[in-house]
Write a structure and sequence with these properties.
alpha+beta; Arc Repressor Mutant, subunit A; 3 domains; 9 helices; 22% strand; globular
Length: 250
């Protein structure tokens, strides 16, 4: 999906309220707990936990909250087991939608996600119906004001990135998942501001929808991401500048 950095900025602006920040902390806490339970509480040896902790830091989550989440996972917590889920379907206009969730109640999460698909004019599909359209990639959003963006892009490729897209004052950097951490570290050593870094499902090819369908798809993604059980949502829709501007005004 093109427009990643602009989409990222718009969503951050919309999520600036205290209520949404609290919801974000809940999602980050779940991610940390699952990573620590699956791979152990040692941040140095558990890559998934390192990534979850870094995402929490990027989201301005206090260290006390992060530490409590790791401790809860190490001690077995309250016995509630979070299940990782991948739900797939189609949005308005036929765009592929991939939903990553963490839930302690499979049926509740499926029903909530299905309802949002239906309300948006889309449909929840069977397992495997759209996952093949995506590949797991490392993705970083880099702020690049007042610099030669072409020169910086070449430097980032030298750091180990696979591809760099220039979008206004931002660069969207793609890596192999296992190289995400090394590329981020190299950028930070060069004092280059990294807005976010995560492993995401990225569409292998994108599709174009009209402006109305694009805005409907973005609104659907926003509603899905507001569900407590949903961690991430991916789409193969190419959001145009016009559609992003219309969504921002909505």
């Amino acid at each position: 999906m093109s427009g990643h950095s602009k989409w990222h900025t718009i969503k951050n602006q919309k999520a600036a309220t205290d209520a949404k920040r609290g919801q974000m902390f809940t999602k980050l806490t779940r991610e940390i707990i699952v990573a620590a339970r699956n791979g152990g509480p040692n941040i140095e040896s558990n890559y998934a936990l390192r990534l979850a902790v870094q995402r929490a830091k990027d989201g301005s989550m206090p260290w006390d909250n992060i530490s409590r989440a790791i401790t809860k996972a190490s001690g077995g917590g309250d016995g509630v087991q979070m299940q990782e889920m991948l739900l797939e379907g189609y949005g308005p206009g036929g765009g592929a939608i991939l939903v990553n969730a963490l839930s302690d109640n499979h049926n509740r999460t499926v029903q909530a996600v299905r309802n949002l698909f239906t309300r948006a004019g889309g449909s929840l599909g069977e397992s495997g119906c759209v996952a093949w359209l995506f590949a797991q990639r490392g993705m970083l959003i880099v702020k690049a004001e007042d610099v030669d963006k072409d020169e910086l892009s070449l430097k980032i490729i030298d750091f180990g990135a696979d591809d760099v897209n220039i979008e206004g004052d931002y660069l969207t950097v793609y890596t192999m998942p296992q190289k995400l951490e090394a590329v981020r570290t190299a950028l930070e050593k060069e004092k280059i501001a990294v807005e976010s870094a995560e492993v995401s499902m990225i569409a292998k090819q994108t599709i174009d929808l009209d402006e109305k369908q694009s805005v409907q798809t973005m609104k659907m993604i926003e509603n899905l991401e507001e569900l407590d059980d949903v961690q991430k949502v991916a789409s193969n829709v190419n959001f145009s500048d016009a559609a992003l501007a219309a969504y921002e005004k909505a």
